[in-house]
Amino acid sequence: MRLRGFVKKSVVLAGVLAMTIGMTACGGSSSDGDGATTITNVSYDPTRELYAAYNEAFKAHYKDETGKDVEIVQSHGGSGKQARSVVEGADADVVTLALEHDITLIEEAGMIKSGWLSEFEHDSSPYTSTIVFLVRKGNEKGLNDWDDLIKPGVEVITPDPKSSGGAMWNFLAAWQFASDKFSGDETQVKDFMRSLYGNVTVMDSGARGATTTFVENGQGDVLIAWENEAIATLKEYPNDYEMITPSISILAQPSVAIVDENADKNGTQELCKAYLEYLYSDEAQEIIAVNGYRPSNQEILNKHGDSFDLNVKLCTISDFGGWNKAYDTFFKDGAIFDEIYSH
Predict the structure, then answer these.
(1) Strand 294-295 relative to strand 241-244: parallel, antiparallel, unpaired?
(2) How much is the pLDDT for 19?
(3) Are the C-beta atoms of residues 248 and 176 closer than 8 Å to each other?
(4) Is the dihedral of CA 343, 249, 241, 209 positive or negative?
(5) Mind listing the pLDDT tens digit for each residue in 76-117?
């Protein structure tokens, strides 16, 4: 991953991809002039490098298996924003988003068939991640756990839960820490979260934008980040940053699904299924690990154990009653995030 060069190009690429998706939506055709079938994968912010590598592997695999050519158009942005773009007309054949709830929004719009969560292995989650801290080398302010982030003078960078799936995972991980610390006393937990978000100096719309703010623009003392974003930053800037795993984090489960309405219209249903199924292959799981995500294949995850803290205490979305309940409790308009962030 080359964050420096990639980030500078991301705005231009996003515009080109948006135009491409728009033209696909208008045209409704999924075959190009060379006979290749084209599908569009609408994904979330930090998966750019992962899918750049995976798409090439899948194209070669599909050619070997079927003799047919395929092209994949990618779109990236904040997960919630991406989900809304599909509902509003972006012609996604598949979505690979940061959390189950964002895909549920597309399902509720009638575009994805019910039961999608069990269509692929591991609740349609071919890889997982977790939430860590990225700090500057030396960690001068001693930011080692969540309660260090509420100290006066600490500048925190995290994206906005209203548009970013990763930001929701960030919030829930911090909430679980505070809930354990204060034995579930909601008043104290809310005060903790209010202090934490009171220290947030920049709240970008997506995880990659937050990484850019911290790494490229030099703002903040700590970035609350996807583990894969932190790993990628360390690879590029090994002498400039440190990754800190807090005492408790969360098992973040990005989800994948076929957008049935579009895939049926485009005649790509079978191809889409093959595309998402291949994410579970050994080849794809290796690509996933190399790109800093935790493979769902336990054997391959263990093989790459030196890249991940496999002993970190992880809460799960089930601890919050599942995504529908968590969203209503914390993130819908007027819910807890709005309550603590507006005061």
Answers:
(1) unpaired
(2) 38
(3) yes
(4) negative
(5) 999 999 999 999 999 999 999 999 999 999 999 999 999 999
Average pLDDT of span 289-318: 96
pLDDT digits (tens, 9 = 90+) for 135-168: 999 999 999 999 999 999 999 999 999 999 999 9
186 and 322 both lie in a single domain? yes
Q: Of 215, 225, 229, nearest to 249 (Cα)? A: 225
What span, in angstroms and rounded, lies between the C-alpha atoms of 166 and 227?
Answer: 10
| 104 and 185, same domain (yes or no) | no
174 lies in the same domain as 265: no
Are 285 and 209 part of one and the same domain? no
- What is the chain's length? 343
Whether residue 30 contacts residue 267, with contact meaning beta carbons closer than 8 Å, is answered with: yes
The burial class, CB within 10 Å (0-12 / 13-18 / 19+), for 109 is middle
Indicate whether 13 pLDDT > 60.
no
Give the tokens for residue 157.
């960078």
Does residue 133 have a pLDDT over 70? yes
Residue matched to tokens 């440190």: 242
> Structure tokens of 61?
């695999």
Average pLDDT over residues 240-244: 97
Q: What is the mean pLDDT of the chain?
A: 91
Q: Residue 13: which domain range?
A: 3-126+254-306
Closest CA to 301 of 123, 313, 293: 293
* Cα separation values, 247 from 48, 192, 285, Å: 29, 16, 27
Task: Evaluate if residue 230 carries a pLDDT over 50.
Answer: yes
Contacts by 68-71, CB closer than 8 A, 24 or more apart: 68/36, 68/37, 69/34, 69/35, 69/36, 69/37, 70/36, 70/37, 70/38, 70/39, 70/271, 70/275, 71/32, 71/36, 71/37, 71/38, 71/39
